[in-house]
Amino acid sequence: MDQNIRQAILEGGTSLGIEFGSTRIKAVLIDQKFETVASGSYEWENQLVDGYWTYHLNDIIKGLQTAYSELKQEVQQKYEVTLSKVGSIGFSAMMHGYMAFDSKGELLVPFRTWRNATTGAAAKELTEQFQFNIPERWSIAHLYQAILNKEEHVPDIDFITTLAGYIHWLLTGTKAIGIGDASGIFPIDEAAQDYNPAMVKQFDELTAAKGYSLKLGELLPKVYHAGEQAGVLTEEGAKLLDVSGDLQAGIPLCPPEGDAGTGMVATNSVRKRTGNISVGTSVFAMIVLENDLSAVYPEIDMVTTPDGSPVGMVHANNCSSDINAWVGLFREFAEAMGIQADSGKLFSVLFGKALEADADGGGLLSYGYFSGENITGIEKGRPLFVRSPESRFNLANFMRTHLFTAFAALKIGMDILTKKENVAIDSILAHGGLFKTPVVGQKIVAASMNVPVSVMATASEGGAWGMAILAAFMQNREQQERLDDFLDNKVFKDTEGQVIHPDAADVKGFELFMERYVEGLAIEQAAVDHLVENGRG
């Protein structure tokens, strides 16, 4: 047992980060060296209910409590301490989406997640009005679509927030949001470091013209920056988080952040000319910009780092779900053959085969669209694999094709940044479960982006660890210390990453695959048009 860690836990010299991802809620406790000392998790899945992807409030609370309880049990087992003190806490979650509450704090409609591609009309109109790209995922698009739809709940709205903002509100009573998460709710004015006031006024005028008296500035959570305190854990919040009642109230909380922001922190990519790619159910790349873009692009979100620097974000709705489904099929086959295949080995073997494939994937084509894809304009999910009789159909090409397609929609947006806008990128840092298998994922991403890709030793820690780092930054920040300096000089000073440079043959192969991918989008659209879903069109 490490007595220094035990003492830090006893004295509250720790930071806790909890992140609500799309398939897992994870809690991470770190010490003063920023190393993980305990963790807990809860697996969950979104559900398609009445045409909307959602998570039930009961699952949100159960997941929060389960993840914390597992972490607390690990602390007890490893350090013989009942966790009652924590130095600082932070919550993060999937960005965007729509949680609307009335004046009594009751949720007016089920939580609508970022995954819903139901706000096309609203996103298009707001983009034209603001001359600023408003993606379908953004909270303001969900609100305006509800207005366009004349939904009954709209006049009763008193507060709108994201999932991270909701959890923070539950535990502190404070309607706060980190600027990174806020930038996925509504456009941020870089000079004001707050919601764009001119666009807020425009929105109010738009809604007034439709007969609504909503005042957007009164509905949105207050914007906070990394390093600021955004509330304290209340007595009620402490009992909600720790059902045993051991956790003490009064713990300071940092601003709640989105998973994009915690990904930037976890990969130390908040400086200009750096970027990161986060891989999971969806995939997004974040590039910290030196200059404004010359035009508005529907493929590129303009968001911010947790300390307010402008970021070009390319977000594709689909990434690993289809790969996971195929690996599950191979697992079934192995078990039918009497082989109990370890999950890690399955991924390692199958991903490894991709390195033996033809550079372009042998003429195979796949779309891993479990849900609609905003970048390519496909409105519904129809996972699709197709080949011609001349395609070289083998396991290596099959796996390479599915790894290629996981990043294909993302590449369309990234090409706008690098080829049209000439955005300079020194390096990209990658994180997510796909990179647990060494080399393979990095080589694919390096080929798709044509830039060096690094995976750091901390990459597997993920967003919950990044959120704990933000909580530690609030707790330990020196006067006027910048987040990028804190990360460089303290958190990552001894951390090394494995860098893989793009291979010319891989880059050319990916470009050939992309020609096939773009040309084949008509096939994917035909699947949407003609393949019925659960007996319905």
From TrEMBL:
* CDD domains assigned: ASKHA_NBD_FGGY_BaXK-like
> What does the record list as GO biological process?
carbohydrate metabolic process
What residues does the Carbohydrate kinase FGGY C-terminal domain cover? 276-473
Keywords (alphabetical) are: Kinase, Transferase
Gene3D superfamilies referenced in this protein's UniProt entry, alphabetically: 3.30.420.40
Q: Which domain of life is it from?
A: Bacteria
Domain annotation Carbohydrate kinase FGGY N-terminal: ranges: 16-241
* GO MF term set: kinase activity
Signal sequence residues: none
Its family remark reads: Belongs to the FGGY kinase family.
Its protein name is Sugar (Pentulose or hexulose) kinase
Give the organism the record lists. Paenibacillus typhae
